[in-house]
Amino acid sequence: MPPYLTELKDKLINTQVWRSMFRGGAWKDTSRDRAQHILGNVWLHLHPARLRQRAVKFTYTWGLGGLSFFLFMILTVTGILLMFYYRPAVELAYRDMKDLEFAVSLGLFMRNLHRWSAHTMVLFVILHMVRVFLTGAYKTPREFNWGVGVVLLVLTLFLSFTGYLLPWDQLAIWAVTVGTNMASSTPLLGAEGPFSSLLGVTNSNDARFALLGGTSVGANTLLRFYVLHCVAVPFLAGVLMIVHFWRIRKDGFSAAPLPGEPPEKKMEVWPNLVVREYIGAILMLIFLVGWSVLQNAPLEELANPNVTPNPSKAPWYFLGLQELLVYFDPWLAGVKLPGLIMLGLIAIPYLDPDPKLGVGSYSIKERPFASAVFLFGVTMWFVLIAIGTFMRGPNWAWYWPWESWAVHKPLPAPTWNLILVDLDNKFGGFFTSQRTPGLRLNGWPGIGAALAAAGGIFSAYFGGGMLLPKLVKGELPFKKSLGVAAIGSLAVGVVAKTLHTFLFRFDFIGKNIPHFGLTEIFYIAAFLFVVVAMGFLLPQKYLRASPVSPLQYAITMLLLLMMLGVVLKMGARLGFNIKYIFSLPGLNLNI
Amino acid sequence: MSFKDVLFTRYFTIRNWFIAGNFLLLFLLIAAVVQDSRREWKTYQKEFYARETKRLKAGLSSAVDAEEKNRLSKKLALVKAQPVRLRQEMVEPMDRFDRCLTCHLGYDPILSPSQETPYPDHPFSAKPNAVHAAHPVEKFACSVCHEGQGLATTVRDAHGPVPHWERPLRTGVYLQASCAKCHSNLFDEKAMPFASGWRRGEAVFRELGCIGCHQIRGQGGPISVDLAEETSDKPLSRIDWSHTGLGEEERTLAEWIRLHLAKDPWDLVPGDPEGKFNEEPIAPSGMPSFALSDEDARAVTTYVLSFAPDRIPAQYAAASPARTTPVFRTAVERGRAVYVKYGCAGCHAPDGSGGIRNFNYQNITEPNLKKVVSTYTREELKEKIEKGVAVVAKADAKGPQPPLYMPPWKEKIRGPEMEDLLTYLFSIADKQEEW
User: Which of A138, A205, A246, B414 is most buried (most C-beta within 10 Å)?
Assistant: First the structure.
């Protein structure tokens, strides 16, 4: 710098005004001052002054957590700006959206930025969770922080969901209708869930009513969601973020120390980490601003409760659950499975047997069981979302992405149930459907037989599934076992086909499974192989020998078997039109 | 050093990322601001001011009269003082906030009180017009009659058709449909000279007997939809466009209605006669193929559209004297009026010769009254009309139920009306030969 500028700068820094605002006077480029940049700054002092060298590498964290927070801040700022123009009343909301687009300077840009940031944030928090898992950064002492993170994920999804309603267009009202209707299927607390009659919940006082402020999505819902979206949930998320960031610091910050290694060399946070965070933020902003300039957020017709679009789709992060509705009743697909997923995620650190193995770096190969199961779950989640987004058209029929939705599709094939218990007409049924009564056993013995069969199937699956890996003591050769499993599954498929040809003349087989060709053999072979490989071979190889406690083992296998149960049920529905494994219509209980 | 090393130590360094990132972000933010400030309407406004300034200046230099000079210079000062801004007419009682004046400055009450400009091209043109004179912009805004998206400020969004806005601009004869929102005397040629298209539509509607199958606000035949309650304001997402041959931009309600009249409804609504996509076979549309001329089709469309509901406060309803019903002298004339009133022509043709098709009907077309009536006695015919034919015989038993049937008229046509109708029918019947 030229000398007169340096002189000016020194003079400025030593004025009373400057010294009163920025404590510390002139900075020198020393180690002490670099540390002081961090420790003496209220915004930055959550960072440590020094950090392990591994942590600074971009490909370690990909900046996902920091960028999630940055996106939250972009959303807060754009959200506040939008709040100057938007009014959460049904007569005004849609008009305000149009005003933002046409009459407000930078209104459309702010709206676009807000919406695209929201989608990006949901994606990034999920990716952040995957990264933390794969680097084992949830292990002791970070288990609780992982749980806080899971709750933050749910809050992010809920923020996005409540915000989705605010434009008050057809997309908004019906996506929220689909999402909130799942709440009415909550067991006990939902008017249409199992056991609803026990507590006397009706449409006007169940969980869904509490969420909507009414019996349908209307003015109360709009106001309620607005308050949740702008005040309540951001406040809650803020509180949890404070805890989350605090724990990150206290538990040792990024790149947890590798076990058994000598203490690592550390580098200074200023400028190394701070400049990388800045660049990450800039790149994210470039991406979002570019996207907002090039593409407008959607706005459909004014919300009309009398006209339901066909199909009505939930926002993309809930489309996975909506697709699951094809295979499960709402209380399972919309309440129990998401709840179990959330609890299962929180439980992961406590199920992890080895608090030291695989922590602090990408250790996918070191932790094959954990990585395989987790990534399988994440992949399934995104596959379901992809199916719901691209392959489902009017009437939720299967439309390949290149097929026009204007073309009508024939009616779906009729479905059938494996086991039915009818308490009103007092019989237990097998292979029942609209087309054929199936095998019926009347009276209480019949009901007993059906219940016993159902109990048998579920206990065989879960109990057997849990015991089998433990029973086979030796070390099975993995690749060879996979081959055996593949051939075995194929063999089962072929055997099933031969059985079918013999039993075809019976109505309960012939009418319910009219065709059994290569597709059906493929379904059996593929799905059985996946379940055997993931549910038996993988645990047998890794869980049997690992130092898990019996409780940890049981819970892990239970969760794994439930996830694979979803896969099996999908195959049963897609391949053989089985609707329910067990159905008890009197209690609204269908699995 | 390897290529990767070179890349990261010479080009993709932290410093370069920092500098490039900052500049790129700055550029994009400026791009966003520029994109936002470049609006279509600003171009039109500036053009209008330029033209007006030029015209007034020319007028001033050629003016002779001091009074005219004064007037023109005042107007020129007004135009020069105008900022380039959004213009909005707010009519709170009707919940309309129209921004049309932003481009159509010729109709701005302050800039152009005469509501007239000499320019031939839109949006600068403004022609004087009795309807505009009777409906000042400050009280009515624009979109209550012209429809379109009043809140929009681009040509495409404001005029349409644009996806997700169901009421595009009403042009040509369709504009007359809006008069019915406040005026219920469109039939009156003297009071409402500009509604001639609507009147033509109503006349064709009555002549073809549409009311025999359709209803208007609950009054009419039971066979098809209520045109006023359902069709006039049908949500576009409920329409199956796959057989209309219309492109995305042309899919409007007016087109849907017009195609029913101009093209063959069997092509538009083919149903599912073989039951390929439904549990049971579904017949195609029961509507006859009128194949009206373009002018007639648009006129009838205007008539149907005129029933679309809108939020108009009571104070806007215009006083309209009731319609007088004509008085006929002979029973045959009265009977003809009954025939038209209940829309018998919809199935039996305006002159009673029938021949209207009915899908999968055993006799293919509806009865020719001229031939059929003479085979009945008066009492038998009265009973037939009163009872109707609820289930008509199918040509193909496996096919769908024919969509058209004869409703029972017992509750609707009674006493003198029934007698007159019978007299009329017997008057048009072919005379049976004497044996």
Answer: A138
